[in-house]
Amino acid sequence: MQLFTCPFCGPRDETEFHFGGEAGNLRPDGADVTADRWASYLYMRDNPKGATREIWVHMNCGEFFVMERDTVNHKVETSIALDSAEHA
């Protein structure tokens, strides 16, 4: 069992969290998006080995945040409120 840190509630059991996707995977503008670009947005992922930035939601408080963690050893480096992470 892992402990994840919600920037709003503090350390909690991993079962209280839900993965939201890669940080930085921005939705394309729907006006002129090609089918290839839309498919890339929906299905293509980097899946890096090592350090990564991901969007997570704490299901208890409903807040979204960016978690920086290592996919090899599962060590969580930081958890940052989404608004703060967008401007960092």
From TrEMBL:
Q: Which domain of life is it from?
A: Bacteria
Species whose genome carries this gene: Pseudaminobacter soli (ex Li et al. 2025)
Q: Which GO terms describe its biological process?
A: tetrahydrofolate metabolic process
Listed Pfam families: SoxD
- GO MF terms held by the record: sarcosine oxidase activity
InterPro entries annotated for this entry? SoxD (IPR006279), SoxD_sf (IPR038561)
**Entry protein name:** Sarcosine oxidase subunit delta
